[in-house]
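Long-time lurker. I teach an intro course on protein structure, and each term I like to show students one example going from raw sequence to a predicted 3D structure in token notation. This year I'd like something fresh instead of my usual example. Would anyone be willing to generate the tokens for the chain below so I can use it in lecture? Attribution to the forum is fine with me.
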Amino acid sequence: MIQVFCARRGAGKTKRLIELANEHSNKAKGDSVYIDDDARRMMQLRGKIRFINTNELGVIDCESFYGLLCGVISQNYDVENIYIDALSSIVNNISESTNLFRKLKEFSQRYNLNLYINLNCECTDDLPDCIREYVA
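-- Reply from a regular --
Happy to contribute to a lecture. Here you go:
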């Protein structure tokens, strides 16, 4: 399952994503991973949630981001939920992410994962159709 949260910068998406991750960590049977482009929010997450800072790993585009996700799953098949904050900042150009979302759909189905993704955008009408179908 993929769920995308879309709103302008400063609308509280990160706070809600952290709350969701912490809430799910109490109920989840599997492991949870939180991916962000910096470490500012790391201490707000429960200790059970694995935190990954993409800036430390040189993730700069859709391909390297997808490679990171594959590495996460290859290391731990028990991952149930992945929370991705500020995907627009991580991959730099969200308008070119059609192929990424096609891969994310296959990825989430193959490994039975829930992906929760925050995107900065003013209007969902500006998003490609492949992303808009997942907007909550």
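Some talking points for your students: The first strand starts at residue 2 and ends at 7. The mean pLDDT is 91.
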